[in-house]
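Example record

The entry below shows one chain as it appears in the dataset: sequence first, then structure tokens.
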Amino acid sequence: MSNDGNGPYERGQAVLAIFKRGADFMKQLMDDNDSLRKQLSSVEERQEFAAKDPADWEELRVELLSRIRNLEDEREMIVEQLRSVESENQQFAERYLEIEEENNNLANLYVASYQLHSTLNPSEVLKVILEIVINLIGGEMFCLYVCEDGGEILKPVAAEGGTVAEFPVVLLGEGPVGEAVASGEVMSGESSGLPPAEGGEPVVCIPLRVEEKPVGAIVIYRLLSQKDGFSALDHELFTLLAGHAATAIFASRLYALSERKLNTIQGFIDLLTK
């Protein structure tokens, strides 16, 4: 996640500031109430004196009207402050839900990342990536590509919502997917809801790179029905997922290649020693 002032400490400070403003507002209300009680007591005393001397009635009436106007002004100010506090509370509640969702996604991503890096089996790595795209991003139809032939060809190796054969092979630098992988930039677009073979455009293409070297891509063509678009948090997840998935794929393929070479060497040694 980005460290631009929206970390747990800063968010905690913002929450404390909101509670402090609420506490200050309640104290002000209590002080105003106490002041009104004193003013009422003073008015009652004046009424008692006015009852004894009718000449004071007019002065008392003018004073009461002035106080009533002042109290109405204070009431309007307090009502406005109350609306402001209610608005801040609503914003706080909304931000709390956003933070809760962000924390849940971070926890899920941590678990998923652990699973990604806990195996060097290429098929297991691909399976974990598919589960991440479904559960964290909300993809319904998507394909996972890996680079072949020196990184010039993107070949579909795993898919959801369709078979691998339905997704075309892509040349690096050609088409939306090839261009996104070549540039290393996440590409977002609109989905027609059609399979790739019928000309559907991707919703998003997440290029997978290790040290600026293309490894593959996650291309999503359709989202789950309950997912109506991508949020800012989703775009952060794209960046994190791209790094973890690319590293996991690269490491698993490198391990598989070294295993094949070791087996080949061991086979030659066995032939020579027999």
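Notes for this example: Confidence is low (pLDDT under 50) at residues 190-199. The longest helix spans residues 56-117.
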